[in-house]
Design goal:
homodimer, about 290 residues, alpha+beta, 8 helices, DNA-binding
DNA sequence: CGGGACGTTGACTCAAATCAATAACCGTGG
DNA sequence: CCACGGTTATTGATTTGAGTCAACGTCCCG
């Protein structure tokens, strides 16, 4: 139905694609907007037609920019299908990838307070978005309270997901960074009702590396390391997680043992607890 | 005009300086809430008393937690005075600092969609916050449209600031990371009407290191490196930026020359442009 | 005074950036 | 059809930046 290209040998079958509406996506912004945009269920359900006209659907072919950093912002977008790469681009043209956005993600919201987009968004595959002009947003919120509620939920989610990203980037070793990223991705897929164990990464190694803050060669090596350890099976962008629990355990490894840190000067009970799990966590599971 | 204490024994009584309302803070959420909480101007200005009762003021002494990760969430907070450290804490007790929050920052918003806080917030100095119970939020938004608008502005800002953080953490070298952090901090101070060149960091080296994703010794070394280069003057937590422009230039240095990256497969004009500023950018300005 | 937290600096080691070579893939066009 | 340039992915060799361990000084508080 959607990507007749792919041509993928591995991990095809069950629509590796991030498209396909998730009926399991209980009441996300995307689902709500879908109802608004296409009068799908209950066509007589008292939804103001004005609200419907406020929501427009837009196709974005692979490789096309939905918004350019620095360009004036017109609308708020919500990803319906596909994947986008969100990035900052500094004046020398060096690109810092900030996130990858899939179904339900809010785009351009960070432009609300400015006249221009701080970030750019480019489609990594053929995608579609819902668009709502800034000028229509207030009215839509007032007419469809559910939308406003979901908008806030989505915002809250976006915020905590960005925090997760910081967690990932703060990880000590490149393998842990990658492991955390894959787990996060897996979890997001699961939340959308897709397979959390088998998926196709929509971005290249360079973009991934940029987001993780490492060199792209390092991402490559980290992949093979995790694969050699039996946690993953990797074939280019096709990833299968073989040992989800093991990966999770591995992703928690820190180089430094946790120093029982008191928050400030606050002295509390025990200075004890030391000597948590140390040792290179990949040494053991290696099938050598 | 500002730091009357300085040299202080670090955050004692007199509400260290990041307090002092910024009259320059044109219409931030904080200012708006301040009007609501204290009926400052135009007491008869038709502000619903219900709205006033929804906003409560709360003191948080230095070192005290405003919210604990994992604890149930009751309210949305907006920082009025002081500074907070926002962090994730993994199950082994290892703390990952995510951000530092100053006046106007939204706290606990990421708990909106969950029952429990994903992050914890601890005051780094004596601080005060506005608190709004989740149950009161909807009503307040409806009664005070300005508040809702400002809330959205603040959210948008928070989102793009988190993106900036990712930019910082993605920086190649530890010195650049620190430089970018200091510039960001400087800019935020300036936006609040305080000196962008001279300030006191409210967090310790370890917290800073955690947020930058480096070892605390490395932060120490990065400080002395920047100071030796003549860009800064550092004395413990007191920082003075001597060469703002130089620091800005330095903060842009990337190790890799920018690869004229085409976003996807999109081929555009020039493959040219190469050989931008290379070479260790600190070697030159050293006053040896 | 001693204990504790913090900050700085040095020495050593290692993980990852860098440089480099190879292979696979894609669309284009002879 | 295959050859071609372009992009991407993997792997290897080498170098170096930063993590780690450790020592030391300071300040604060009890």
């Amino acid at each position: 139905m959607n990507h007749p290209h792919d041509s993928a040998p591995a991990a095809h079958g069950t629509t590796a694609s991030s498209g396909d509406f998730s009926p399991a996506g209980r009441g996300s912004v995307a689902d709500l907007l879908h109802v608004l945009a296409t009068g799908a269920p209950s066509p007589s359900s008292g939804l103001p037609t004005a609200a419907r006209r406020a929501v427009c659907l837009r196709r974005v072919p692979a490789g096309r920019y939905l918004m350019h950093a620095g360009a004036p912002s017109e609308a708020l977008y919500v990803v319906r299908t596909g994947t986008f790469k969100i990035a900052h681009t500094d004046e020398e043209g060096y690109e810092q990838v900030l996130a990858f956005a899939a179904r339900g993600a809010l785009l351009a919201y960070d432009a609300l307070c400015m006249k221009h987009h701080p970030t750019s968004a480019v489609a990594l595959e053929d995608s579609t978005v819902f668009g709502i002009l800034w000028s229509d947003l207030d009215g839509l919120c007032r007419q469809v309270p559910d939308f406003e509620r979901e908008l806030h939920r989505a915002l809250s989610l976006a915020l905590s997901q960005t925090h997760d990203l910081l967690d990932i980037m703060a990880a000590v070793s490149s393998e842990v960074r990658l492991a955390r990223f894959l787990l996060r991705h897996s979890g997001q897929l699961a939340a959308r009702g897709q397979s959390p164990r088998r998926f196709v990464l929509r971005m290249g190694r360079r973009d991934l590396a940029s987001m993780l803050g490492v060199a792209h060669e390092t991402v490559s090596r980290a992949f093979t390391t995790l694969a050699t350890a039996g946690l993953l099976q990797v074939n280019d962008r096709h990833v299968e997680i073989l040992d989800l629990e093991g990966l999770r355990t591995f992703s928690r490894s820190t180089r430094r043992p946790p120093e029982d840190v008191s928050p400030f000067n606050t002295r509390r009970s025990g200075p004890a607890r030391r000597a948590a799990a140390r040792a290179s966590p990949l040494a053991a599971p290696l099938p050598g």
